[in-house]
């Protein structure tokens, strides 16, 4: 288990085929078993399947970023043809929680981590969708495009697909920072 966890990598280059629905259903079934505060189980999932659909979401993220002052260098990268936002992923998974639910961020992160590790175990590449998460908090147009249910907010997302590369070593990490008392 330690070797599995230590060797996990973020995948940022994907093959074009979306994750099959049966695989996504199995992964989401694992994620729904993740711990939630007081066993509340309030998460709602959105799965976007297909590169064209995911790209339309990436375009909306950039459009929202233009309106809200996303760093010009990032906009220039997009305009030059680099999808640094959703990495041309063929599948996108978004975790949502009720807006007023105070543990939604934590429950979403835990469930997305379960989903990420279950995907890795099945050979599915994953990368966290930070731009999506940040922009969805600020822009109703992105939440509308994602079809986030009324009264819910985005708590995190994962880009998913079969990676184009394989890796033979554990990613380097900084030394452990710990205080013993």
Protein described:
With 181 residues, the chain is of the alpha+beta class. The protein is built from 7 helices and 4 strands; from the N terminus they run ααβααβαβααβ. It has helices at 2-7, 21-31, 51-68, 72-79, 104-121, 130-138, 140-146, and strands at 44-49, 91-98, 125-128, 152-161. Strands 1-2-4-3 form a 4-stranded antiparallel beta sheet. The model has no long low-confidence stretch (mean pLDDT 95).
Keywords:
181 residues; alpha+beta; NADH Oxidase; 4-stranded antiparallel beta sheet; 7 helices; 43% helix
CATH second-level architecture: 3-Layer(aba) Sandwich
User: At the third CATH level, what is the topology name?
Assistant: NADH Oxidase
> Would you identify the CATH H-level superfamily?
NADH Oxidase
Helix content: 40-55%
Structural class: alpha+beta
Strands of the biggest beta sheet: in what spatial order? 1-2-4-3
Low-confidence stretches: none
Compile the SSE list and pairings.
Blueprint: H1 2-7, H2 21-31, E1 44-49, H3 51-68, H4 72-79, E2 91-98, H5 104-121, E3 125-128, H6 130-138, H7 140-146, E4 152-161
Antiparallel strand pairs: 1-2, 2-4, 3-4
Helix pairs in contact: 2-5, 3-6, 3-7, 6-7
């Amino acid at each position: 288990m330690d070797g599995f966890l230590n060797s996990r990598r973020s995948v940022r280059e994907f093959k074009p085929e979306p994750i099959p629905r049966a695989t996504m259903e199995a992964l989401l079934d694992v994620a729904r078993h993740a711990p939630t505060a007081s066993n509340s189980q309030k998460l709602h999932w959105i799965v976007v399947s297909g590169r064209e659909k995911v790209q339309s979401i990436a375009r909306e993220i950039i459009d929202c970023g233009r309106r809200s002052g996303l760093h010009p260098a990032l906009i220039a990268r997009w305009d030059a043809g680099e999808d640094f936002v959703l990495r041309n992923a063929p599948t996108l998974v978004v975790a949502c929680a009720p807006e007023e639910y105070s543990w939604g961020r934590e429950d979403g992160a835990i469930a997305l981590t379960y989903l990420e590790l279950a995907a890795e175990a099945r050979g599915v590449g994953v990368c966290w969708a930070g731009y999506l998460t940040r922009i969805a908090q600020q822009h109703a147009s992105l939440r509308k495009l994602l079809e986030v249910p009324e009264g819910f907010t985005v708590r995190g997302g994962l880009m998913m697909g079969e990676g184009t590369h394989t890796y033979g070593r554990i990613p380097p990490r900084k030394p452990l920072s710990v205080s013993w008392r």
